[in-house]
Specification:
Elements: H1 3-12, H2 14-33, H3 37-44, E1 47-48, E2 57-58, H4 59-84, H5 91-117, H6 135-145, H7 151-175, H8 182-200, H9 206-223, H10 228-236, H11 250-274, H12 284-288, H13 291-317, H14 328-337, H15 342-352, H16 356-395
Antiparallel strand pairs: 1-2
Helix pairs in contact: 1-11, 2-3, 2-6, 2-11, 4-7, 4-10, 4-11, 5-7, 5-13, 6-7, 8-9, 9-10, 13-14, 13-16, 14-16, 15-16
Length: 396
């Protein structure tokens, strides 16, 4: 195995990718609050790209919109595999994470509205902040914590987080954006349909698919939706079954090329800029006393796991199935990871609040809630593994 192959194999490792992402996020927080904060901010806000195509974006926007689309393409391919031939191929198994995602969005929003509606100082406009799960960070933490958990847990979190992200993107488009351009949305849909048709007919040629993928990204960007949804759509359009004479499916071949780039470059750069929140601009005492902070914190730390677990239980009562070898203790771990709001939550906060004090409260709530969500997931995972070992010992 060559050095390049070893590096690619290392980057495809879930634990390695998760570790790199977490280190990049810590570096972003350090740069934003350290002596190089001014230079780092200047780099993040530097605009590049063709203005005539409405693509003169900041480096931070390119990482969150374009580079992260590669990660969402990987997620889309993996989700298509799970839904078609994997652990979620049975509709009753796929129903469970979808229901859990819906519960994990509704209860946090309800908690936020209840907290902020109970006081004159409350701001109801931030109800969307605790609804979002950061799929990149949640999967990274699961990769670090998830040794010993069934493989179906990752597929469950994958599906839940994708549904959650699509819901958050739709909420941004409908409630936190200026306008949605339906003509560009229709163009993006036509391009994805052309991509899927070419895959179905086994048309060869990487150039064709690259043009269709880039065109889809541009169309989604122009439509007003977050452009990362293009990555999910193209990933879901990939063919995951090998045809006659094929050693691997198109999805497998694409993942072999894209996954190392996603894990080694795209996601770490996204984390670097996404985590760069300057805490020195936040009035911490005032933020801690704000109902915005409390609503976000309770919504993510309590609303997410309770909403996810309750909705999953409810779906199970009407016929949905747990993935193979996955227990309700595992779903509780996933529910806790759902409280990692981070990037999408911060984005909704920026769109929801103009006042610096309100935005500072929301940012502090998201950051603290995400840390507590990781701690809660680690605790639940440790308890789950202790019960498993105890059961093994008793049965032996």
């Amino acid at each position: 195995m060559t050095k390049r192959q070893r590096l690619a194999a290392f980057l495809r490792s879930e634990t390695a990718g998760g570790g790199i992402l977490i280190v990049a996020a810590l570096l972003g927080l350090l740069f934003a609050n350290g002596p190089l904060s001014a230079q780092f901010h200047a780099l993040a806000t530097t605009s590049i790209g063709p203005a005539e195509l409405h693509l003169q974006l900041t480096i931070e926007e390119w990482t969150a919109g374009a580079l992260l689309a590669l990660f969402f393409f990987v997620i889309g391919c993996e989700l298509r595999h799970e839904l078609e031939i994997g652990t979620l191929s049975r509709p009753r198994a796929a129903l469970l994470p979808v229901a859990a995602a819906i519960g994990g969005m509704l209860l946090p929003a309800g908690i936020y509205l209840a907290v902020n509606g109970a006081t004159p100082q409350g701001e109801l406009g931030g109800w969307g902040i605790p609804m979002a799960t950061d799929i990149a960070f949640a999967l990274a933490v699961l990769a670090v914590l998830g040794r010993g958990l069934p493989t179906g847990v990752r597929a469950f979190l994958l599906t839940l987080a994708v549904v959650d992200d699509l819901g958050a993107i739709l909420i941004i488009a409908l409630f936190y954006s200026g306008s949605l351009h339906l003509e560009w949305l229709a163009i993006s849909g036509a391009l994805v349909a052309a991509f899927a048709l070419a895959q179905h007919r086994r048309i060869e040629g990487a150039a064709l698919y690259l043009v269709l993928a880039i065109g889809t990204w541009i169309a989604v960007h122009e439509s007003g939706l977050h452009p990362t949804i293009a990555g999910v759509a193209i990933g879901l359009a990939m063919r995951v079954r090998s045809g006659p004479g094929e050693e691997a499916s198109p999805a497998d071949r694409a993942l072999a090329r894209v996954h190392p780039i996603s894990a080694g470059i795209a996601v770490p750069l996204f984390a670097l800029f996404a985590a760069a929140v300057d805490l020195r601009t936040v009035d911490v005492p005032a933020a801690l006393a704000s109902p915005i902070f409390l609503g976000v914190l309770l919504g993510l730390v309590l609303g997410k796991p309770i909403g996810i677990l309750f909705a999953a239980r409810l779906a199970a009562r009407v016929g949905a199935e747990l993935p193979t070898a996955v227990t309700w203790n595992d779903i509780a771990v996933v529910g806790a990871l759902g409280g990692i709001g981070f990037t999408v939550s911060l984005l909704i906060g920026v769109l929801a609040f103009d006042a610096a004090s309100a935005l500072g409260s929301a940012k502090l709530g998201v950051l603290l809630a995400s840390l507590l969500a990781v701690a809660l997931a680690a605790l639940l995972r440790a308890l789950r593994m202790r019960r498993t070992r105890g059961g093994t010992i008793r049965s032996s």
